Amino acid sequence: MATIQKMKNTERMKTLSGHYGECYDLTQRAEENFHEIDSAACMDLCDSAAEYAALWMESARLQNDFPVIDQMIKGSGAVSLSPEEHVALVRYLELGRDMQNMERKLLYFRGHTDNYAYLQMISGIIVE
After folding, report:
1. Confidence band (pLDDT; 50, 70, 90) for 122?
2. Cα–Cα distance for residue pair 44/16, rounded to 1 Å
3. Among candidates 66, 58, 70, which has minimal Cα distance to 98?
4. For the segment 8-20, what is each residue's pLDDT rounded down to a tens digit?
5. Out of 6, 32, 38, 86, which could bridge 81 as a Cys pair, Cβ 3.0 to 4.6 Å?
């Protein structure tokens, strides 16, 4: 029975691939569109997660109040920091790490929900 179900799914995928072209190559699509997917996830977090929005706002404030942060991140050459600038830079890096963790968590769980929906679509999972 499992072989028959597997064969049916394989035949269905051939039909879907023939009908829609290569649109079902999710790995390739994810790789090609990762920056857009990542950007959309960040925007979703800004809109729906108050904690993420607060981290983002604090990060932007630090960049604005301490221009040396951009010099450290994007510039080149030697930079010297005052004790206050050093504290601000460390906080900025902590905020970035916290935001990245929230982004990765969102993408991880979104991937699971997308995969479940995809498997349902190709009859890999039968919901009764």
Report:
1. low
2. 31
3. 58
4. 445 555 544 444 4
5. 86
3-state class (DSSP) for residue 3: helix
* pLDDT of amino acid 60: 95
Q: Could you give the C-alpha distances from 53 to 6, 64, 103, in angstroms and in order?
A: 45, 16, 12
- The label of the residue with tokens 């905020």 reads 95
pLDDT in tens, 20-65: 454 456 667 767 776 777 677 777 777 778 898 899 999 999 999 9
- Please name the residues in contact with 107: beta carbons below 8 A apart, sequence gap of 6 or more: 37, 38, 41
Contact 96, 103 (CB under 8 A): no
- As given in the structure block, the two tokens for residue 19 are 């009908």
In the chain, domain spans:
33-121
Residues in the chain: 128
Please report, for residues 29, 59, 72, 80, 88, the alpha-carbon distance to residue 94 in angstroms, rounded to integers and kept in the order given. Answer: 32, 9, 15, 20, 10
Contacts for 9-12 with beta carbons within 8 Å, 24 or more apart? 9/122, 9/123, 9/124, 12/122, 12/123
- Mean pLDDT computed over 92-104: 92
